[in-house]
Structure formats: C-alpha cells, structure tokens
C-alpha cells in the first residue's frame, strides 16, 4: 500500500470516528450530565496523553512566553468551544448537530478573508455562500417550521453549535499567528487536554451540586466516555496527523465534510432520529456549496479552501473533543 493510499485510508477512518462520535455523544448524554461527561472524558484523556506530552516536550521544549498563549488556545478550543457544542448536542438531534459541525471549517475561511485579508476566488465565495445558507436553513428549521417547546430547544441547540464554530474560528486564526512563533500544533493540543479537567470541574460541580464521583457514573455512559476520550481524541488525532503528513492539506480537508455522512445512518438506526425536511434542504445546499468551493470545473480534484487561504486545519480534530 503506497503512502497516498495509506493517507486516504487514515483520513477516512478519522472522519468515521468523528462522524460516529455525534450519535454516540447524544446517546451518552441521556445518562450523564454534559459537564460531568466532559470532566471525566478529559481527565481520562489527559492521563493517557501525559506520558506522550512529556516525551514530546523533551524534544520540542516550551518557551515560557508561550504558556499564556497555549492556555488561551486551550480555553478557546476546549472549554468555550465544547461548552457550546455539548450544550447544543443536549438540545438538538445528532443528525443536525453533525451537519452544522461539518461546515465549521467554513467559518475559518470567512475569518481568514475578513481578519487576515486572505484571498478567495469567486467560485469559492459562491460555494461558501451556498454551504452557509444550508447550515442556516438546517439551524433555523426547528424554529421556523415548528412552534412547540421541543422545536425551540432544538433551535437553541443548533445556535449553540454554530457559536462553537465561531469560537473555533477564533482559535484557528490565533493558532495561525502563534505558529509563526514556533508553537507546535501538539503543544496546543496537549494543553487543551490538560485545561479540560481543570475548567470543567467547577462547571460539573455547579451542574450536579457536588463533586463529580466516578462511582456515580452510570454504566451506560462508559462506552461513550471511553470512545470520545480514546478514539475521538487520541486515536483520531494520531491517524489525522499521520494521514495529513503524507498528502497535501488541500486534499485532506475534504474528509472533514464526511462526518455528517457517517453520523446520519447511525443516528437514524440507533437513536431512532428522523430526517427533517429542513435538514435535507440544508444538506443539499451544503453539498452544492462544497462542490463549487472544493472542486475545479471539469476535474475531480480538490482545491482545498483552507489550503488556498493558507490556514491550518491541523488541530480541527479538537472540535471533536468534538
């Protein structure tokens, strides 16, 4: 198996892990409070990542002046972003949440154009507009076409997911600036793992009214916690970074959009969710937008929006603490 085939296989596996993560997270939240889940998930992840982190910093030392920036990056990528994401998953369907998350890289594209003065051709602009219109249709559908409490909750959950995407945009744009100073992606990823337990602990206490206890975790939540801590974080991170090192980033970012493709069948069969008409309409807009933005006319070859803008997608997996 050549390196390109290996890369595509690893990136496909990564997209499946992150795609399945949405329905698994939604199922798990039926048995454990959201911030309690995040606290224990990142406690487990940080314990596993600690020896890897120690080994890494011995070879790539951290400068003292980097620490505040790394902490801020951890707060943005983990604490703030995931507070929005998990609050969204607790209220909306896994199908809608996964679609909205899959288009979050487009926020980075827009941020790059607005704040970094990056250039985007007309075809890519049209594609981004279509994809964002699709996300907007899917997000507002529950409010526009429904009037009961459940639809209002779903709409609020969708807005939380989109807010998480905006926070992620800020994180990526800052990371781009800080990478020029020598801060490595794994420095930021590791800090995000360690910031998680420290910041989610007070939230879990406020949520449950007491200190989180491992003995109080229902057995039904074990699988989801281990899946998100080990597979969605460490395994997917390793596979993504390995795959990305073997091919151009312009070809790797297309796999990010497959997450909703994997999430929908699992949510339909396992969780018994349905496909709202607004989701299907929104999905059509998103697919049209991605075809316009990611593929050149007459050729099945990705132009890679984030590569075109010279924006790093390394670390997008952090949203899949997402």
TrEMBL record:
Record keywords, A-Z: Cell membrane, Membrane, Transmembrane, Transmembrane helix
Membrane topology: Multi-pass membrane protein
Domain EamA: 6-138, 156-292
Species assigned in the record: Candidatus Blackburnbacteria bacterium RIFCSPLOWO2_01_FULL_40_20
Membrane-crossing residue ranges in chain numbering: 7-25, 37-58, 70-91, 97-116, 128-145, 157-174, 186-206, 221-240, 277-295
One cellular-component annotation, GO: plasma membrane
Main localization (coarse): membrane
UniProt name for this protein: EamA domain-containing protein
Keyword flag Phosphoprotein: no
Protein's UniProt keywords contain GTP-binding: no
Compartments where found: Cell membrane
Record-linked SUPFAM superfamilies: Multidrug resistance efflux transporter EmrE
InterPro entries per UniProt: AA-Vitamin_Transporters (IPR050638), EamA_dom (IPR000620), EmrE-like (IPR037185)
Pfam families per the UniProt record, alphabetical: EamA
Domain of life: Bacteria
């Amino acid at each position: 198996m050549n390196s390109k085939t290996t890369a595509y296989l690893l990136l496909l596996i990564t997209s499946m892990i992150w795609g399945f993560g949405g329905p698994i997270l939604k199922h798990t939240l039926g048995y454990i409070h959201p911030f309690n889940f995040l606290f224990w998930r990142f406690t487990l992840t940080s314990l596993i990542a600690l020896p890897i982190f120690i080994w890494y910093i011995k070879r790539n030392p951290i400068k003292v002046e980097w620490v505040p920036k790394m902490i801020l990056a951890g707060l943005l990528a983990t604490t703030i972003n995931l507070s929005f994401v998990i609050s969204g998953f607790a209220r909306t369907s896994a199908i809608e949440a996964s679609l909205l998350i899959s288009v979050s890289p487009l926020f980075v594209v827009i941020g790059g154009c607005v704040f970094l003065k990056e250039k985007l051709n007309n075809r890519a602009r049209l594609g981004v507009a279509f994809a964002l219109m699709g996300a907007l249709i899917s997000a507002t559908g529950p409010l526009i076409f429904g009037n009961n409490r459940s639809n209002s909750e779903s709409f609020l959950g969708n807005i939380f997911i989109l807010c998480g995407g905006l926070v992620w945009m800020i994180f990526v744009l800052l990371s781009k600036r800080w990478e020029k100073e020598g801060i490595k992606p794994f420095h930021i990823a590791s800090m995000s793992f360690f910031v998680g337990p420290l910041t989610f602990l007070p939230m879990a206490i406020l949520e449950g009214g007491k200190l989180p206890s491992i003995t109080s975790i229902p057995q039904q939540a074990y699988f989801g916690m281990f899946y998100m801590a080990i597979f969605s974080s460490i395994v997917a991170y390793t596979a993504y970074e390995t795959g990305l090192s073997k091919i151009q980033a312009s070809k790797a970012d297309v796999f990010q959009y497959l997450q909703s493709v994997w999430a929908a069948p699992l949510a339909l069969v396992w969780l018994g969710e349905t496909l709202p008409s607004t989701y299907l309409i929104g999905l059509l807009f998103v697919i049209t937008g991605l075809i316009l933005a990611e593929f050149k006319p007459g050729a099945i070859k990705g132009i890679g929006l984030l590569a075109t803008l010279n924006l790093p997608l390394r670390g997008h997996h952090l949203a899949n603490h997402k």
